[in-house]
Amino acid sequence: MEPAESGRPAAPAPEPRRAQRLHAAGRLSFRRRVPEVRAQDLPCVVGGEDPPALSDLVPEGYRRVEIEVGPGKGIFLLAAAQAQPETFFLGIEAAVAYGRHAAERLVHAGVRNALLLVDNANLYLGDRIEPGTVDRIHVYYPDPWPKRRHRKRRFFHEGMPEVLARALRPGGHLLVATDNACYAGQIALVLGSSTFLRRDPEEERRLLGGPPGFGFTPTAFERKYLAEGRVLRRYAYRKPEAAA
Ligand SMILES: C[S@@+](CC[C@H](N)C(=O)[O-])C[C@H]1O[C@@H](n2cnc3c(N)ncnc32)[C@H](O)[C@@H]1O
Description:
The protein is of the alpha/beta class. It is 32% helix and 19% strand. The chain has an eight-stranded mixed β-sheet with strand order 1-4-3-2-5-6-8-7, with helices on both faces.
């Protein structure tokens, strides 16, 4: 069991029921299922069929907004919100149980500058965000869907660079980590061949040498994979300043 930030042992993450998991092909079916879950008592918005726009979720007064796609247990989201109290963090999580778990983590820590949204991030980034309004997008250890017939479910596909760049402000960053060599190859190909984003090795070095909560670290899967001795690949991509 992993220790909670308070020093008390954390409750194990509830396993999401299969029916509540994302199915990439089913936009409406996914969004129809989630309103059944009650999360009003937590900083967790269940998107449903018509999720609120980003501008409706960010409280007034925040000049910086960062998004984490698939925060899982919310370890990075909490560390980032604590490390950067003047930035508002939105975690977009497809699995309802993880959304609730991460939201509980924020509440226990007394963090107010972060929120969970239960939705399919692939869709949300494309249709609920004003162009050029997000400072950073974090995607850590996205599901690799190793079976060939499932690969269409991967977060990074050829249309994604444009969607991500549209959401980012000029000069904003996309930060990605994966342990999966095959998926890393696809990510590098998809992002590297796009004109919407540029690899930024200097930012990679800066973040990897810096304190936690700014990019890449810490996450639950990172801890697990480091303990297993896996090779982790971490990439930073920047939206060019000149881009619209
Ligand atoms: C392998 S886990 C990684 C969790 C966390 N980032 C970490 O490093 O510990 C992938 C997470 O992404 C979520 N996820 C998968 N596809 C998603 C999507 N399209 N939109 C939002 N979340 C998604 C999963 O439910 C899961 O919580």
